[in-house]
Amino acid sequence: MTANRVLIAEDESRIASVMADYLQASALETRLVERGDEVLDAIADWQPDLLLLDLNLPAVDGLTLCKQIRAQSRLPIIMVTARVDEIDRLLGLELGADDYICKPFSPREVVARVRAVLRRSVAANPEADPNQPLRLDRQGRSASVFGHPLNLTEVEYRLLELIAQRPGRVWSRSQLLDQAYSDYRDVSDRAIDSHIKNLRRKLDTTAPHYRWIHSVYGVGYRFEPEPVEDAT
To answer: CB of 3 within 8 A of CB of 26?
Structure first.
């Protein structure tokens, strides 16, 4: 089996070297670039399976690169940043990043997040896995897991359809609120918590051997089906 390729775009050589060492020890191939204006050429030349993209690269910054890459590719991207304020986190994800890692970090965390995003990218490809557990019927506004209907409300269906399109992406409450109500009614962001709670309960009750929706502290929610070990 061919090893997955991870392109590391990081201008701090010590950090880049540590990440490369740990990823290589986990049977992943790596290549390093130190400048933002080298990233697109490296992607075209090497065809990586995932990009670890530092936010503050010289020449071209990470957010600009993320936007440029997303305009032409679904290459999985993990943003790496020392800027931990919520705006930067959400902006990176809204531009199309699949995950983010905040400095300082554990190299083992990097390996775990890379492997998780690689798994999600395979699971999101219907040609790679035609037996997805979740099925959505847009015309009928209905959903099922493992063939069992979920009996969703209209708002719950809208939310599930949105977050299931991008497994692993973090959605803020305001983003979910815009999707949930098409008539722009005046509803508190916290109403989303109630809808997500009900949606999570229906998913967990129907398929308790999976964990479906995860809370991201201070930000919102992400949809990422994960088997639960020793579920009963």
So the answer is: no
Write the Ramachandran bin of 166: left for phi over 0, alpha for psi from -120 to 50, otherwise beta.
Answer: beta
| Cα separation, 164 vs 45, whole angstroms | 32
In this prediction, residue 85 carries a pLDDT of: 67
Domain that holds residue 86: 5-123
What token pair was written down for 52?
A: 């670890």
Average pLDDT over residues 158-183: 79
Question: What does the pLDDT look like over 152-166, one tens digit per residue?
Answer: 998 898 889 888 877
> What was the pLDDT predicted at 129?
43
Q: Tell me if 12 is assigned to some domain.
A: yes
Instruction: Return the H-helix or E-strand segment holding 120.
Output: helix 107-123
Question: Distance (Å, rounded) from C-alpha 72 to C-alpha 31?
Answer: 21
